[in-house]
Amino acid sequence: MDNNTSPTPTENPTGKATAGLVLGIIGMLAWFLPLFGFPVTIVGLVMSLKGMKSTSRGTAVAGLTLSIIGLVLTIINSAIGAYQGAHGQNWIQQ
């Protein structure tokens, strides 16, 4: 039996928590562009969830909260845009 096994590289959940927070903040700023808002907030959600196991759990919770809010705003904006496009309306010109 060989005891010279190298340790497997461990993931850094603290970095994922921080990435989730940064993406949550960017998602809060990008919700008005659904093509950009959807991927940013979804990746922010995933990173925040993976970062929940780290020592900086508060950062992950903040990122998760901001990502959820950004995702909801992006969905609402997409629905309003789809409704306006289907009815040929533009709220800015009215």
Protein model, in words:
With 94 residues, the protein is an all-alpha fold. The chain has a domain of 52 residues. It contains three helices and no strands. Helix 1 packs parallel to helix 3 and helix 2 packs antiparallel against helix 3. The longest helix is centred in the C-terminal third of the chain and has 31 residues. The mean pLDDT is 84.
Give structural attributes.
70% helix, single chain, 3 helices, elongated, 94 residues, mainly alpha
What structural category characterises the helix and strand content? mainly alpha
Count of DSSP strands: 0
How far do the termini sit from each other? 78 Å
What is the percent of helical residues? over 70%
Describe this structure in a few short sentences.
The protein has three helices and no strands.
Give a topology summary.
Layout: H1 13-30, H2 34-50, H3 57-87
